[in-house]
Amino acid sequence: MLSGLSWPAVALLLAAGVLLDLLLGEVRRWHPLVGFGNLAYALERRLNRGGWRIPRGALAWLLAVLPLVALSVFMCGVAGLAAHAVLLYFCLGLRSLRDHNLPIAAALGAGDLATARELTGRIVSRDTCDATEADLAKASAESLLENGNDAVFGTLFWFAVAGGPGALLFRLANTLDAMWGYRNERFLQFGRVAARGDDALNFIPARLTALSYVLLASGMGAKRRAWRCWREQASAWSSPNGGPVMASGAGALGVALGGAARYDGAIEQRPLLGRGPAAGAGDIVRAWRLVLHTTLLWVFVALVSALLVTGATHA
């Protein structure tokens, strides 16, 4: 292991981090990732000017990420196993996905479209001021499926590879991609390193996530549909990692995602994902359960494999 930890220790710490996240949820004040976002914003304002935008973006990425990852390595060396579990807790966003999305489903179920629009606007970048119930349910379900990888499974994968510092590296890189990875005049060159770095770190986790969505689809018909949607639709999506995750997830749920969405007042036609009717309030809950069950599957596999390694060692 790159972390220097044994696999049984990694598996136990991984389970502990997930449990802490489910029990405690997102830190309400002084969240480290919020502070990191402020740092990233300050670096971008300072360096995203003049020429040499790509090298400046690379420098900004290095200044934002490497000192914090180095500090996390030092902390884990000093504080030991507890530091790994705490770092994973701070990097995970499983309960946050539930806390931000299930209220949208509840508002839609109660017919409170105004509240649903406000809540959805907090988690997506698309316009929601005149969104329909189907638009809001689609936006929430897409956010759950995609962030299942970005906020949960990618973090767990890199924790398994490199412990707490690995989880932190992934989440910081993912945050910078979310802030700088836009294909517009301001960020097209400056954010290129952030976007490509996130693509590289996400390549394996995204496909493991897509495979997990296939395996956990309810029934063989749904599994086959999820697999076909992944293989046939993912390549049309603009994100090389978001495509497999969202296509397989939509196929597993048996709903239609993608399509038209409004950004900055303009309608953007995105490729269709999945097969079935338009998403509704109940599909938000189903998407959350798919993400939760996938997390539990990964924890179960980690713990069982740790038991097998321990047994083989003592045989």
Automatic annotation (TrEMBL):
Q: Name one Pfam family in it.
A: CobD_Cbib
Q: Which family does it belong to?
A: Belongs to the CobD/CbiB family.
Q: Which UniProt keywords apply?
A: Cell membrane, Cobalamin biosynthesis, Membrane, Transmembrane, Transmembrane helix
Bilayer-spanning residue ranges:
59-92, 151-173, 290-312
Q: What does this protein do?
A: Converts cobyric acid to cobinamide by the addition of aminopropanol on the F carboxylic group.
- What is the recorded membrane topology of this protein? Multi-pass membrane protein
Record-level GO BP terms: cobalamin biosynthetic process
Species assigned in the record: Pseudoduganella lurida
The protein's matches in InterPro entries, at most eight in alphabetical order, are given as: Cobalamin_biosynth_CobD/CbiB (IPR004485)
Q: What is this protein called?
A: Cobalamin biosynthesis protein CobD
GO MF annotations in UniProt: ABC-type vitamin B12 transporter activity; threonine-phosphate decarboxylase activity
Q: Which domain of life is it from?
A: Bacteria
Where in or outside the cell is it found? Answer: Cell membrane
A single Gene Ontology CC annotation of this entry is: plasma membrane
Q: In which pathway does it act?
A: Cofactor biosynthesis; adenosylcobalamin biosynthesis
